[in-house]
Amino acid sequence: MGVFELGTFIFSIVAFLIVFFIIQRFAFRPLANMLEQRRKHVETQITDAEKSREEAAKLLSEQKRLLDEARKEAKNILDAARVRSEELAREITQKAEEEAARILDENRAAIARDRDEALAAVTARVAELTVELTSKLLNNHVSTEVHNEMVAEAEKRLGELVC
User: What average pLDDT does the chain have?
Assistant: First the structure.
């Protein structure tokens, strides 16, 4: 068993306090300061990271908004183009129908004109042949007046037959 010596005990306490004071003065304070700086640095980085995250979220929402606007604008452009193409198709169809109607009317008028000309030519030719044949048959036994009446009657009847 050891013997308790008061002098050694006091010397040990004093030595411990001196070493403690030295360590606290030259090791603990710089270490505490360094830890405090490190804590502040970490807090700053956390704050910066939080700001960066918020800024990134704002940018993301802004990009989504811009993308939505671009989609809406593209849709509006497509809708306008679709409406315009339908209008153009309707205009082209209407013009084609008008042109077809005009051509049809012109052709109907030409056919009617040609028919009238052909009928007139046939009537004239039949009248000439009738007069010629009648003249040959009657062999100058009819007066000029009677002859003209017969021609007029023949033309009239031929006209009725043709129409």
Answer: 90
pLDDT of residue 139: 67
pLDDT (tens digit per residue) in 124-143? 888 788 778 877 777 666 67
3-state secondary structure the chain: CCCCCHHHHHHHHHHHHHHHHHHHHHHHHHHHHHHHHHHHHHHHHHHHHHHHHHHHHHHHHHHHHHHHHHHHHHHHHHHHHHHHHHHHHHHHHHHHHHHHHHHHHHHHHHHHHHHHHHHHHHHHHHHHHHHHHHHHHHCCCCCHHHHHHHHHHHHHHHHHHHC
